[in-house]
């Protein structure tokens, strides 16, 4: 296996006076889809925000593509090739779908063939091209959010709970899209509570509890080992099954 | 009939339309209402002159207010020193008009005048922009995200800037020559139907034209260019703009400089309009500026424009009827609008 | 005893205690220590601003409400008394009517502002108050047949409060600064200097007015100190820290905020009335100007927001600086005697420039103001002492074992 694209070593993080992350150890393999599991409040979202430089890191280090990015600014991390879809999707509701995507293309005009590929993945984007993104439905917004992260080739994609609050049919569409991305060997770190969704997509898996990674391995291993699953489901995955 | 089924009666239909209009386009409703009420209160010729003058005043105020509304919208920075940049622009403009370019200013030919006016306006913008740059980096940057401290340091910074203006150009008011070709008024003979003959001050027409041009330009930038998309996106969610890889600090600095430059431009225009300036003129204008950005909805360029028109018009209309009540009417307008729509007429952000 | 007078809110810093005691003595014996009308006016203004700034701090420091309408209430009080006397003659009844009317008007306006603050967010509120205060200033300036416009009004105070009333003859005072000046510059003339320092105090109705002012300032200050240390004050601080949480705990935060705005307005109105009686002349510039509003803000921040003692320190530092910084700059520019831009930078008339710089710097480097900073230092020293003691203790224990 080649060197991981992203490595977190002993990362701590605080939000206000609360100590959220207690020494995260995490590796995201290149070209694979890694799922980060864990119950609410385990620190999954904070981990993603910390990688993006949105939460300060008092101790520990984050390495991306062999470069130490721990103290970089958010915009610099983004320009280095990490795309982030936050939990609330962060769509610009006052901007049109087109403008949302134009803004995401930091290297100039959008590439038409890539755009066509995104339209294939997410047909509603084409349909509502010149409408304000604020008028889209929840699922369409999620599509836009992911499309925005993919409108230019990026090395790593961080996605925070894309299935949250979506109807099953739309979750299925999203899964198809993620499979397409996997086929293109995009490295993805996906935070997810929906276990069937993550079982379908995940290649590697890491489980968090109380600000630490308590288990990591392959998804196949976790999917087959029912005792292990039981242990980890006992951490709170059960609620979603 | 209409009582039996209120939703289909013609009155109800109109009422529904009106309700929809007042919730969708409150700025147009208010503007229309004001024009209409003023029209009832005075004779048509006066009304016409006052309306044009009010709009001219409004567009000058828009130049001054637009920068402040954008800096607030983008970074939620409240710059109470904005007025000092208005004064600064006015002084730089005045110095240019009276100093080396003075000969062009007094000439009655518009062509020669432009040789003085354009450099004066440009210098006002440049100086205000550069000082704005320093001001952002030195004074404002350390207090991002803390409104109370922003209010304090910008008030303090405003005192310092105004004192520096006084140190440089003296504490007394200085007269500003109005360029030769822009003195006096257009006289229209009384062939215009309904209105009759009227007299329009030339400078106000020029101010109106310039204001509308800048507004058009700004709308174009905001609506059509990538920079505009970026600004609008930043007003909505600045963290997400950073996540896309843009340096929001740089963007903000740019907007701040542009806003200061526009304040300088507005100040220079205002100086020529009033023909007399003091270091404190910006502070006095800040009241109108504040009312405008509250009326329009903080962060909204369109709202700012309509707010400026409303303030300009109410100043002229009320000033015509009872000059002493102009300031009260302006503030009353603001309080009324706030009671009706607390976020302003065209809100873009959830403050 | 002291605990209960100060409501348990002690200065908590030795330097601060000393400064406060010095200020108290200086204000209490002021007319007998500092000769001259300018010093007398300075003393009076300090007392006025202690009330105004303490009341402002109740909003700004304790509740984080930024209002720019404070001078409006000050002006209402000042003009209330001036108009009351103007209409009903120079009697205490007229003063009473004037103050009562002013308080009613202030209460009504403050209630309106308080209600408006329900509709808009804090940052809007600051801007709205600024605009309202400006509108009020413009009304006062324009209604010259009532208010005298820019020229303002003279306040013909009752004889008992005026300069013509001489309740005491030939009281002796001691010129403290004159004596200190001699002490430091010509110590060999100490005996003469000591003798020369005695002067005759003109004890008039104005002196009586000053002591009334001093008394009111003291009482109001102690009242505010009690208030902020009462359960009411605790709720205010809870609202300041986290309005949502305070709401969730069941406090009607709106009620509290409105009450603070009204109370602060009423106290300021009263201070305005006292100012009119002391100064005997009111105009828009000395009661309603935006510059005055900024001065109040400066005093509050400089002294230390959220520490009522800061109002005393801020008022003293500012008023003294306002009155004497110009002298210092004047002496400086004479001594340096450079022309041009640099020379005009240190011209006495540009004292505000230096004050502005000082203000901005103090917001950056001492955001908690003079009092806050003194308390931080005192606290740090205590902690250091405690740590040193503990270390000494543990090393002693180690030696034993």
Automatic annotation (TrEMBL), chain A:
Residues 6-235 form the ABC transporter domain. It holds the Pfam family ABC_tran. GO terms for biological process: L-amino acid transport. InterPro entries: AAA+_ATPase (IPR003593), ABC_transporter-like_ATP-bd (IPR003439), ABC_transporter-like_CS (IPR017871), BCAA_Transport_ATP-bd_LivF (IPR052156), P-loop_NTPase (IPR027417). Signal peptide: none annotated. CDD domains: ABC_TM1139_LivF_branched. It comes from the Bacteria. One of its GO terms (molecular function) is ATP binding. Keywords: Amino-acid transport, ATP-binding, Nucleotide-binding, Transport. PROSITE patterns: ABC_TRANSPORTER_1, ABC_TRANSPORTER_2. Belongs to the ABC transporter superfamily. This is ABC transporter ATP-binding protein. The lineage of its organism: Bacteria, Pseudomonadati, Pseudomonadota, Gammaproteobacteria, Oceanospirillales.
UniProtKB/TrEMBL annotation, chain B:
It holds the Pfam family BPD_transp_2. Keywords: Amino-acid transport, Cell membrane, Membrane, Transmembrane, Transmembrane helix, Transport. One of its GO terms (biological process) is amino acid transport. The chain crosses the membrane at residues 28-50, 56-78, 85-106, 112-139, 151-171, 203-222, 248-273, 285-318, 325-342. InterPro entries: ABC_transp_permease, BCAA_transport_permease. GO terms for cellular component: plasma membrane. It is found in: Cell inner membrane. It is a multi-pass membrane protein. Its main location: membrane. One of its GO terms (molecular function) is transmembrane transporter activity. It comes from the Bacteria. PANTHER family: ABC TRANSPORTER ATP-BINDING PROTEIN, BRANCHED-CHAIN AMINO ACID TRANSPORT SYSTEM PERMEASE PROTEIN LIVH. Belongs to the binding-protein-dependent transport system permease family. LivHM subfamily. This is Branched-chain amino acid ABC transporter permease. It comes from Natronospirillum operosum.
From TrEMBL, chain C:
The keyword Membrane applies. GO terms for molecular function: branched-chain amino acid transmembrane transporter activity. InterPro entries: ABC_transp_permease, LivM-like. Pfam families: BPD_transp_2. This is Branched-chain amino acid ABC transporter permease. The chain crosses the membrane at residues 15-34, 41-59, 65-85, 92-116, 122-146, 208-228, 254-278, 290-321, 328-346, 352-371. It is found in: Cell inner membrane.
